[in-house]
Amino acid sequence: MKTRGIIFLGVLAGIAATAVADDWPHGLGPEHALTWREEGVATGRPEDGWKVAWRAKTGWGYSGPAVADGKVYLTDYVITTGEVMNKPSARVKLTGSERVRCFDAATGKELWAHAEDRDYDLSYPGGPRAVPTIADGKVYVLGAMGHLACHDAGSGAVVWKRDFVKDYNATVPIWGFSAHPLVDGDTVYCIAGGPGSVAVAFDKETGEEKWKALSAAEQGYCPPTIINYAKTTQLMIWHPESLNSLNPETGALYWSIPLKPSYGMAIMAPRRSGDKLFASGIGSVGALMKLEDSEPSATIIWRGTPKTAVYCANSTPYILGDAIYGSDIRSSSLVAVRMKDGERLWSTRVPTVGEDGPERAGHGTAFLVYHKGNKQFWIFSETGDLILAELSPEKYTEIARQHVLEPTNEAFGRKVVWSMPAFAMKSAFLRNDKELVRVDLAK
């Protein structure tokens, strides 16, 4: 009986360990919350630095990695002809192959890869944008030119495909299809485009269309997200004309609020905190909304002005307590704002372009992930630095920093790495246009 008791306790310990050892199976992490909940993670940096467990070669890409079941999934682009030249308002033609790849998370060894020839005609053409989504043994990948594919996660075999340009008469956005697919239940939700099909729901096993909804001049770049409020599951779709709440079963519209960023740049995923919902973008376009308790609807609390709020593009902000923290597209700073009225509390360029960054840098970017247990933020800077910091309404406090990757792309005359990190297995998984790395962050 004593032996059985020991075994039973061991099983319970294993279950407990698994419960806090979250994967990072899609963009924005578990529950799309930008929150890392794993225990046993470093709260500082050792004298000899955080160890890089491995490095693996990659091609071009803005898409971040996803981690699930001991594997890392990444998309990239291998150029055959042409050159990456970044002009905000001009498309560049490239020929090459777009790939989805699977690596052993413990060793960095490539386990499989699937490549398809793909011509690019994009502004900022340096690779795919959307993070792969892993669910129930499948990998869902959206390429920069609008090709959606479902792969077997173990072998890479193609299960089904869709082409948004061909199937929905969608126009390829100037900065490419960027909204990572959302899997919820038996459905894959995507931002496609075309008349009546900004949002499309597919059967996750077969790729068969379930419904399509919404029309707009452009589809934008914001991923679909799910919120649960007013005893209702709501699918949030922000296209460049309005923020919309849909019934995820049918695509029927619950509510819609005009929210029109410049240049069609609806990018960040709307963030919910309690009964509040926040979204913002270029052109000082941002709003805090109140979700109604009695039915699925929302009203505006405040709209931002050029001197208030934070206007996010490349990365999604984080709401903690009574403050919103995010990378401001206009000032290239990490900014803290008071949630109740949008008043700016502080700003700093230290974790974005750096203290010595160009004075007129545009779109300075830092990717924020909150470690819930340690109450600290892990930040991946566009300079290729991994940063550990504490953020409060009073100030930004940097605890540690380590240069991990070289910026290999370019924006507004400076070198950048613009790719969302993943956090799993007590590690950070980071990429640029040459390599994917795993950084050991175990305590």
Content-based structural category: mainly beta
Low-confidence stretches: 1-20
The 3D shape can be described as globular
The residue fraction in helices comes out at under 10%
* Residue share in β-strands: 35-45%
Please outline the major beta sheet: 5 strands, mixed
CATH architecture of the domain at 54-221: Beta Barrel
**How many angstroms separate the termini?**
35 Å
Strand order of the largest sheet: 1-28-29-30-31
- Determine the CATH topology of the domain at 54-221: Lipocalin
Number of strands: 36
Instruction: Calculate Rg over CA atoms.
Output: 21 Å
The CATH C-level name of the domain at 54-221 is: Mainly Beta
Task: Give keywords.
Lipocalin, 443 residues, 5% helix, 36 strands, disordered N terminus, 5-stranded antiparallel beta sheet
Give a verbal description of the structure.
The chain has 443 residues and is mainly beta. The protein has a domain at 54-221: Lipocalin (Beta Barrel), CATH 2.40.128. The protein has two helices and 36 strands. The protein has helices at residues 2-20, 164-168; strands at 35-36, 51-57, 66-68, 71-81, 92-104, 110-117, 120-122, 133-135, 138-142, 147-152, 158-163, 182-184, 187-191, 199-203, 209-213, 225-229, 232-239, 242-246, 253-258, 271-273, 276-281, 285-291, 298-303, 318-320, 323-328, 333-338, 344-348, 366-371, 376-381, 385-391, 396-403, 409-411, 414-416, 422-424, 427-431, 435-440. The strands form nine sheets. The protein has a five-stranded mixed beta sheet, with no helix packed on it. The longest helix is centred in the first third of the chain and has 19 residues, at 2-20.
